[in-house]
Amino acid sequence: MAEKVLMKGNEAVAEAAIMAGCRHFFGYPITPQTELAAYMAKRMPKLGGTYLQAESEIAAINMVYGASAAGVRAMTSSSSPGLSLKSEGLSYLAGSDLPAVVVNIQRGGPGLGGIRPSQADYFHATRSTGHGDFHLIVLAPNTVQEMFDLTIEAFELADKYRVTAMVLGDGMLGQVMEPVDISRAGNITTFAKDWALTGTQGKRSKNIVNSLYLEAEELEMLNLKRYEKYAEVGKYARTDSYLTEDAEVIVVAYGICARIAKNAVNGARKKGVKAGLIRPITLWPFPKKQMKAAAATAKAFVVVEMSMGQMVEDVELSIRCSRPVILCSRTGGMVPTDEAVISAIMEADRTERS
Amino acid sequence: MSVTHELMIAGFGGQGVLFAGKILVYAGLLAGKEVSWLPSYGPEMRGGTANINVMISDTMIGSPIVTNPTMLVAMNQPSLEKFEKDVKKDGIILIDSTLIPAQVKRADVKTCYIPATKLAEDKGLKGLANMIMVGKVTKELGVFDLEVVKAATSKSVPERKQDLLASNLRAIEIGFNYMEG
């Protein structure tokens, strides 16, 4: 086995990006993701790469647009308020079919909010990251090892489908230090980017990267085509399951909440309740099929998240509200306790099987 | 039977509680354990209170948050006041008795009083009370040997500060060998 190294979640994302071949990072500091930018600032110059602290988050995302249009792997990272600023750029990236990786280490909101961990940007990430018809691929790690693994996957998926892939973490995942096996990086794919703006050398017709289409027919056609691509991406929807085989109460949680929920599932089992955990690893595409399959045997669901209740709506939609879904959440930077989740599981267990 | 040690190390920002936790986590890793290190972050790092949640376990770690520590290391009075009630029954509370005049009120926990700050000053190791505590924690935990902690420290002290390594190692030994009374 390869030797594991201790890394903060933020550092693991940065190292993974470097190993994935990213040599262009554009950022702007914000707690609790700053270690990511700091790591890049330290490493990039030594690798002949570019670390650039932009004048704002808006500038940073547009630099990603430029670098991506030139055909290189580019990345930016921020935390919640910074993502609001990046929204316009993310929409332009989508409209131009440019690959990019964006990291959001979420903190409490709205507004400047706080700096404690949060998952209140779920809607922003999966629904309205910017204006117009588009989606990001949203990956939700729950350990430092997954922060590493999923960042590499984000680069691969982004290039494969020419979309933005987001790694959605939270302040706690960014700050926690755990062992990471960085030898797991695996093979990095080189994608031919014949659409990139690399200079024609007088040998080919020019490429255009653009998101402005004034003819409605043309824009509609492009959007329809893009959604065919999204349908293809749908097959990547995936989950991690724990003790679900005989579960009567299914707990659904992602990121750090899934680890708290796992403790709670163990706690509930000790009290005689058949509880299990489904952890979405992709938030978009959302693992609808897995939820629907679970609803066939479970009598109730508990959703654990650090927001006023956002993913809970995707769970309800996926199972067409066929089972009661109880929300167990904290907001503003507070973190649910094992005990609170166990109570929610007990409450769900008392619901009558319909 | 799997064992999970849940440590809370708390003190003022600047006392080195985050570094102390890092050494312990690294030692745990070297000893083949599952580990996690979760700091308090933000404004408290700039001189207020700081605390670190450390987990060392035989099995995969669930949530890295320590709410009921099996061991509390209190480096100042507010930390003891804040976390004493949370320590698990039969847990351990280690106290820097130079900075904390109060006694632990609970009778259902083991208590160790170590004048870490004074010991450090007396031995010419000012600022290394945290490492004296690391030594004591190592002794009380019994999860890894003194040598493993020393190896973890050697790897954690950056190259440009290698001249400080010897004093760090000495501080750890002092804590490890400290006898009360």
Can you walk through the features of this model?
The complex is a heterodimer of chains A (354) and B (181). Chain A has helices spanning 9-19, 34-43, 57-69, 80-95, 122-126, 144-161, 171-175, 216-233, 256-270, 288-295, 311-318, 338-349; strands at 5-8, 24-27, 50-53, 74-78, 100-106, 137-139, 164-170, 177-180, 239-242, 249-253, 275-280, 282-284, 300-305, 325-329. By secondary structure, chain A is of the alpha/beta class. Chain A has 2 domains: 5-235, 3-Layer(aba) Sandwich (Rossmann fold), CATH 3.40.50; 240-349, Rossmann fold (3-Layer(aba) Sandwich), CATH 3.40.50.920. In chain A, strands 3-2-4-5-7-6-12 form a 7-stranded mixed sheet, with helices on both faces. In chain A, strands 9-11-10-13-14 form a 5-stranded mixed sheet, sandwiched between helices. A two-stranded antiparallel ribbon of chain A has the order 1-8. In chain A, helix 4 links the parallel strand 4 and strand 5 (100-106). In chain A, helix 1 (9-19) crosses helix 2 (34-43), helix 9 packs across helix 12 and helix 10 (288-295) packs across helix 11 (311-318). A 6-stranded mixed sheet of chain B has the order 2-3-1-4-5-6, with helices on both faces. Chain B has helices at residues 17-30, 77-83, 116-122, 129-141, 146-156, 165-177, and strands spanning 4-12, 34-39, 49-57, 71-74, 92-96, 110-114. Chain B is α/β, with parallel strands linked by helices. Chain B has 6 helices and 6 strands. In chain B, helix 2 links the parallel strand 4 (71-74) and strand 5 (92-96). Chains A and B meet through helix 7, strand 8 and helix 9 of A and helix 1 and strand 2 of B.
List the helices and strands and how they pair.
The complex is a heterodimer of chains A (354) and B (181).
Chain A: E1 5-8, H1 9-19, E2 24-27, H2 34-43, E3 50-53, H3 57-69, E4 74-78, H4 80-95, E5 100-106, H5 122-126, E6 137-139, H6 144-161, E7 164-170, H7 171-175, E8 177-180, H8 216-233, E9 239-242, E10 249-253, H9 256-270, E11 275-280, E12 282-284, H10 288-295, E13 300-305, H11 311-318, E14 325-329, H12 338-349
Parallel strand pairs in A: 2-3, 2-4, 4-5, 5-7, 6-7, 10-11, 10-13, 13-14
Antiparallel strand pairs in A: 1-8, 6-12, 9-11
Helix pairs in contact in A: 1-2, 1-6, 3-4, 9-12, 10-11
Chain B: E1 4-12, H1 17-30, E2 34-39, E3 49-57, E4 71-74, H2 77-83, E5 92-96, E6 110-114, H3 116-122, H4 129-141, H5 146-156, H6 165-177
Parallel strand pairs in B: 1-4, 4-5, 5-6
Antiparallel strand pairs in B: 1-3, 2-3
Helix pairs in contact in B: 1-4, 1-5, 3-4, 4-6, 5-6
